[in-house]
Specification:
Residues about 260-265, about 635-645, about 955-965, about 985-990 and about 1040-1053 have low confidence and may be disordered. The protein contains 51 helices and 14 strands. It is α+β, with helices and mostly antiparallel strands.
Length: about 1050
């Protein structure tokens, strides 16, 4: 039957089906179900079968028995016969097998187990039939199905082994590969590896290659190098790719486990030597292949990769093909992010041919003016990135030819940004002229505004007086107004010059403020002066500055923005008295100007401790009332419109917070009122003020009413904003023990994951003195380890792993052998977050090796993903520590560490982002260093957002029932009261592997039988004190006792 005219009608009928029988009837109608078997023999019919199975999967989400019947009766038999289908439908068959896996794991765990068992038994029965009939096509497809599901049933390995040794040819090799895909444990692992090595001596195919890659055993390297590098294999493109892929996979898998004294992975060094030999032997065609494949060079963690890989390019020429090879090879080298690889950049000699190639490609003109990228722009971009990693400074000839003569303004702007991360000795005259030249950003033409903005960044990084003069007379504007970035760049360069002892900067700015003909230049000077005052660098010119401001402030022809900056300068000139006329002007502005200038004047009066001199203005501006000297928040009148816009409201709250900091007793009622009524975006200012007051107290005790209000700030967060972390951190630091005692498990069920991630981070950073607080924190973090959102679990793993490593190890070890797949998944995730110290690294490696042979494919894959995350986290931490270890920065440090910064930008995560921004906010740095580190942090944030968007989401949420008071009956010690911790699974089964914190200390030195009673249910268990924390009881499940335990209870091992 020709299905093509009916495709849309069939799909619509399938999608509209309300029952499984309706789907089957549609398939019968169009002859896709014949004699009780699915029928699909071309791409269209196979696509329809896939759509039908997907529909049935949805219909059976809550009907597992129907799902089981359909899979066993129709779906699996059809997959068994897929080997007879045309080659062009194999992708549809692959999608069908993926659908089967999704189908199984959409159900609760007990149903998953049943489906896996029934499907495995079906496959086992069919394999046994093939021992008699030996249908190679069926065996071929069954091997694919078993590997795709990835569940290692106990009967699979012996059956597959017997079949593989009974039949011959590639199907036999495929069956061994199928065994390898199930990650067998000993003794099967050694037996299978020996057989694979034996077969590898006589043949090379994708099945043996796949199996050796799966095992990732270092001994395979010698077998491959001895037997797979024969001319017959190397001359065959496909076979050569298989051998290369297998070798580099082995090098990648051995990383961080087998390192020589030089820090190189010696397996990677062996593999790299092989690739070098192949490069010498092979033609440019092979070099093209090497540059195309991202799994070869970047996977070899050896210092030789960079200089020798760059040396490969000596064989390329100036043709388009040669340029494309160099572009891709530069990209592959820039993807080398591992420790030993990064050391290779230091080995590149400026006199080498490879460096000359870089220089030439960096100097080319792309010859294109549009936004899009061309082959030449891609080549130039990667060449410059490599050049910066070498640490060799670009000379004036390269700047002239590669930057100034670049046609494309977008490319030139990117190069300005790149060069801003190192210290050029002087500002090129062409850049200075570009900055001074008049240009409105609204006149956008082929990247002109962007390029000019990047030129300003370059000038800031150079920080010479010539750069200062160019920036203070900048011609770039937006409809006559200065750009914020321009003002900030001038402010930064002014600060750096003043700190270096340049005494002409401040007089020049003061003169420009009064004498300049352009109001834009007035504003630039005002921004720079306010920044210098904030940095406490205006003190030596304080009187001149105050006099100048007093003369200018009445001039209302000047922009409000400019005058506001001048008023803010007064705020920071704290040691210089405000003259009476100037003070009167400030009060006038605070009382009459409703805009930014009035608010800035009020802020100055508050911070200069002048605010209480005029209570009437203070009440009107800040919405306060005063009774007997005590200040309250004025009650809003419902009929009136909102008092203030959002931005002004935040200013109002910030000023009330400052008044409380100055006069705690007088303004405490106002602070409490605000904390109860205001939104999250402003409460961090209030909490900051409370922290300031709290730190000054000798007794460090907050009033009870204030404590309760503060805790409410943490528990009543309604939505995630950028201020959440600051609020939670302040609450935690003010009330650490109370913060840990909050019922976070209940809150997590209805709170956004981003909020709970920050809660976990704050719990981890708190310094707790008492054991009760530490135990409460551990309980809260373990609650989060069962959250449905991976980000929350991840944060909890990280914090518990760092703070309570022993407990974390005990839990992870117990989970790794639990009957519950969900627990084993959590153990796999936990691998990433053991401390990096050697003892914990050894335990993490051991745990990873154990979990990576789990019977369930999803657990194995999660372990591999999280191990990769661990490696990258450790690398990123080491790179960040190298960068932050510099005490006095110079240009040589940046050049030497540039490659490590580039790697950190790609590998860093949330902890490195937070640490680096904190470093930038607390250290005085040269402008080029600040720009460089700022670019790293921004790139990290982008990469982090991309990676976190791909986090796993397949662990269903447990309902945590934490810190419940229960009775634990010990056989030899009687009954004691404990806080017991357990979870409730989504399918209603109570799950607990547990631990307990007794209300009164007790030590159980050996495993002791016990019965725990909670809510009328009793559970048999074994109890023993934790090795490192004697007051913490670890509880292990045992088989249920008759008439004592719920029949639905699941126990961990």
């Amino acid at each position: 039957m020709d299905l093509h005219p009916h495709m849309n009608a069939i799909r619509q009928a399938i999608f509209q089906s309300q029952t499984v029988d309706a789907v089957l009837e549609t398939l019968r109608m169009y002859q896709l179900l014949q004699d009780g078997r699915l029928f699909g023999q071309d791409r269209e019919s196979c696509d329809l079968v896939y759509e039908a199975c997907r529909a049935v999967r949805t219909l059976t989400m809550d009907a597992s028995e129907q799902a089981e019947q359909f899979i066993l009766t129709y779906f699996l038999p059809w997959l068994d016969q897929a080997g007879s289908l045309p080659e062009d439908v194999q992708i549809e068959i692959h999608y069908c097998r993926e659908l089967l896996c999704e189908w199984i794991y959409q159900h609760p765990e007990n149903i998953q187990a049943r489906l896996l068992e029934r499907i495995s038994l079906y496959l086992i029965e069919n394999l046994m039939l093939q021992e008699q009939h030996g249908d190679r096509l069926v065996l071929h497809e069954m091997g694919f199905t078993i590997a795709s599901i990835g569940y290692r049933h106990d009967r699979f390995l012996p059956l597959l082994w017997d079949l593989a040794n009974t039949i011959s040819g590639e199907v036999s090799d495929q069956l061994l590969a199928t065994m390898g895909s199930l990650s067998p444990q000993e003794p099967w692992r050694s037996l299978l590896l020996t057989e694979l090595h034996r077969r590898a001596t006589s043949r090379l195919n994708r099945w043996i290659s796949s199996a050796l890659s799966q095992f990732s055993d270092p001994s395979s390297v010698d077998v491959i190098t001895e037997h797979w590098l024969k001319p017959d294999y190397l001359n065959d493109h496909w076979l050569r790719m298989l051998s290369e892929d297998t070798l580099t996979h082995l090098a990648n898998a051995a990383d961080d486990v087998m390192l020589d004294q030089a820090g190189d992975n010696f397996i990677a060094s062996k593999v790299w030597e092989v690739l070098k030999v192949l490069t010498v032997r092979a033609s440019t065609e092979w070099l093209n292949e090497l540059s195309l494949r991202s799994n070869l060079i970047p996977h070899c963690n050896t210092g030789a990769v960079i200089p020798e890989g760059l040396g490969f390019l000596d064989a390329t020429d100036a043709t388009e093909d040669g340029q494309n090879i160099r572009w891709r090879m530069y990209m592959r080298l820039n993807e080398c992010l591992r420790p030993a690889q990064l050391q290779g950049w230091e080995k590149i000699e400026a006199s080498s041919k490879g460096f000359a190639n870089l220089w030439q490609d960096a100097a080319i003109d792309t010859g294109y003016t549009g936004r899009g990228q061309t082959a030449l722009s891609l080549l130039k971009e990667q060449a410059w990135n490599c050049l910066m990693r070498t640490g060799s400074p670009p000379d004036i000839a390269l700047f002239t030819q590669g930057v100034e003569h670049e046609t494309n303004l977008f490319v030139r702007g990117e190069l300005y940004t790149l060069l801003a991360t190192i210290h050029l000795a002087y500002l090129p005259s062409s850049v200075a002229e570009l900055i001074r030249e008049e240009h409105d950003v609204h006149d956008d033409h082929d990247g002109e505004p962007m390029m000019r903005m990047r030129a300003i960044t370059l000038a800031q990084s150079i920080a010479t007086h010539e750069a200062f003069d160019a920036l203070r007379l900048c011609g770039l504007h937006s409809n006559g107004f200065i750009l914020l970035d321009t003002g900030q760049s001038l402010a930064r360069i002014s600060e750096e010059l003043v700190r270096e002892g340049d005494t002409s900067v401040i007089p020049t700015l003061l003169e420009q403020l009064e004498a300049s003909v352009s109001d834009r230049w007035h504003t630039l000077a005002a921004v720079a002066l306010e920044h210098l005052a904030r940095a406490d660098l205006l003190a030596s010119f304080a009187e001149e500055s105050m006099a100048t401001i007093a003369r200018i402030l009445p001039d209302r022809q000047r922009s409000e923005y400019q005058l506001a900056h001048l008023v803010m300068s007064i705020t920071h000139l704290a040691s210089t008295p405000i003259s009476a006329p100037l003070l009167a002007t400030l009060w006038e502005l605070a009382g009459t100007d409703p805009g930014i200038l009035g608010w800035t004047a009020m802020e100055t009066l508050v911070y200069r401790h002048e605010a209480l001199a005029n209570p009437a203005t203070l009440k009107d501006r800040l919405g306060l009332s005063v009774t007997k000297g005590i200040w309250h928040l004025r009650k809003p009148v419902p009929s009136q419109p909102p008092l203030l816009r959002s931005r002004e409201n935040e200013q109002r709250i910030r000023l009330i917070a400052e008044l409380y900091r100055q006069y705690p007793t007088l303004f405490q009622p106002a602070i409490i009122d605000l904390l109860k009524r205001e939104h999250l975006g402003a409460s961090h200012w209030l909490l900051w003020a409370i922290e300031e007051v709290y730190q000054k107290q000798s007794r460090k005790v907050l009033p009870k009413q204030l404590q309760n209000t503060i805790l409410t700030c943490a528990t009543s967060i309604s939505t995630y904003t950028s201020r959440v972390f600051a609020v939670l951190k302040s609450v935690g630091q003010l009330l650490p023990d109370a913060f840990c005692q909050i019922s976070w498990g209940e809150i997590a069920q209805k709170q956004e994951p981003q909020v709970m991630m920050h809660v976990a981070s704050v719990l981890g950073m708190l310094e707790l003195q008492g054991q009760e607080g530490q135990q409460a924190r551990d309980l809260a973090l373990i609650t989060f380890m069962s959250d449905n959102a991976y980000g929350v679990r991840r944060a909890a793993y990280r914090e518990l792993g760092q703070r309570s490593s022993g407990l974390f190890w005990e839990l992870s070890s117990a989970w790794s052998t639990a009957a519950s797949r969900q627990l084993r998944l959590r153990a796999a995730e936990a691998i990433a977050w053991f401390p990096a110290e050697s003892i914990w690294q050894e335990r993490a490696v051991a745990l990873y090796r154990a979990i990576s042979t789990d019977r369930d494919r999803t657990v194995r894959e999660r372990a591999q993903q999280c191990w990769k995350e661990r490696r990258e986290w450790i690398w990123a931490e080491s790179y960040l520590k190298q960068i932050m270890s510099i005490e006095t920065w110079n240009d040589e440090d940046v050049r030497r560490l540039w490659s490590y910064g580039a790697a950190l930008a790609q590998l860093g995560g949330d902890t490195q982002i937070q640490t680096l921004w904190g470093y930038l906010n607390t250290h005085l740095l040269p402008s080029y260093v600040r720009i460089w580190l700022g670019q790293i942090a921004e790139t990290m944030e982008k990469q982090w957002q991309d990676r976190s968007s791909k986090w796993p989401t397949d662990i269903p949420s447990y309902t945590p029932v934490a810190a419940i008071q229960a009775t634990l009956s010990l056989t030899d010690q009687g009954a004691i009261k404990v806080h017991l911790f357990r979870w409730l699974q989504p399918d209603g089964v109570i799950f607990w592997e547990g631990f307990a914190i007794p209300l009164s200390p007790i030590e159980v030195t050996r495993p002791t039988s016990a019965v725990a009673s909670i809510d009328g249910e009793s559970f048999r268990c074994s109890v023993q004190s934790h090795a490192d924390l004697p007051n913490l009881l670890l509880i292990y499940g045992m088989p249920p006792a008759q008439n004592e335990l719920s029949q639905n209870t699941v126990y961990s091992d």
